[in-house]
Specification:
The structure holds 2 protein chains of 2 kinds. Chain A has no helices and 11 strands. Chain A is an all-beta fold. In chain A, the strands form 2 sheets. In chain A, strands 2, 4, 5, 6, 9, 10 and 11 form a 7-stranded mixed beta sheet that branches. A 4-stranded antiparallel beta sheet of chain A has the order 1-3-8-7, with no helix packed on it. In chain A, strand 7 and strand 8 form a beta hairpin. Chain A is globular, with a radius of gyration of 14 Å. Chain B is mostly beta strands. The chains are: A mainly beta, B mainly beta. Chains A and B meet through strand 5, strand 9 and strand 10 of A and strand 4, strand 5 and strand 10 of B.
Chain lengths: 117, 110
């Protein structure tokens, strides 16, 4: 158990809908990362938040957005869903970027499996 | 886009044997990390090697890094059935983003 929790575990929805995935980082971790894992694209970095602020952006679609709240939990919002958005969505957390620019170890949650029908 | 590429894509070995997988990457990195993923579950961090390190050990794991060749290897010694999983290398670039490879699927036969 990594200490990172994600809800829900499974989500089945229809095209065009909007869903919200939730992540609670490990106690004390300030950074939250979101990843998408699909069969064709592999594991893709989406976005990172650090202490409530967006810190880095990856291959995140404009239909997707995220935020980190004052209690450090994070939500990933996916809208206008398409069949191709079906994937495993992982959240990871780390304590803080170490001085010198390297990040700390990332601890992954169990993921949310999204199925778009 | 994926920066790291693992080789081989799949590996099947007998329990007790060693498993070696390789990772190649394209751009300069801060560090390289190896993760394990059991089927459909979250990733588990195994080991991190910084760009100024050449070799690192953790239990039955040995990781090497050759920045001149932009490559790394992960060796699992004395494999066990519980080592059956997918293994991913991830490179952290200068903008702190982690890029994952496609992974190596390891099957350890009893």
């Amino acid at each position: 158990d990594s200490g990172v929790t994600q809800t829900p575990k499974h989500l089945i929805t229809a095209t065009g809908q909007r869903v919200t995935l939730r992540c609670s980082p490990r106690s004390g971790d300030l950074s939250v990362y979101w990843y998408q894992q699909s069969l064709d694209q592999g594991l893709q970095f989406l976005i990172q938040y650090y202490n409530g602020e967006e810190r880095a952006k990856g291959n995140i679609l404009e239909r997707f957005s995220a935020q980190q709240f004052p209690d450090l939990h994070s939500e990933l919002n996916l809208s206008s869903l398409e069949l191709g958005d079906s994937a495993l969505y992982f959240c990871a957390s780390s304590s803080h970027p170490l001085s010198g620019g390297t990040t700390d170890t990332q601890y992954f949650g169990p993921g949310t499996r999204l199925t778009v029908l | 886009s994926q920066q790291g590429e693992e080789d081989p894509q799949a590996l099947s070995i007998q329990e007790g044997e060693n498993a070696t997988m390789n990772c190649s990457y394209k751009t300069s990195i801060n560090n390289l990390q190896w993760y394990r993923q059991n089927s459909g579950r979250g990733l588990v961090h195994l080991i991190l090697i910084r760009s100024n390190e050449r070799e690192k050990h953790s239990g039955r794991l040995r990781v090497t890094l050759d920045t001149s060749k932009k490559s790394s290897s992960l060796l699992i010694t004395a494999s066990r059935a519980a080592d059956t999983a997918s293994y991913f290398c991830a490179t952290e670039s200068n903008d702190y983003k982690l890029s994952f490879g496609a992974g190596t699927t390891v099957t350890v036969r009893a």
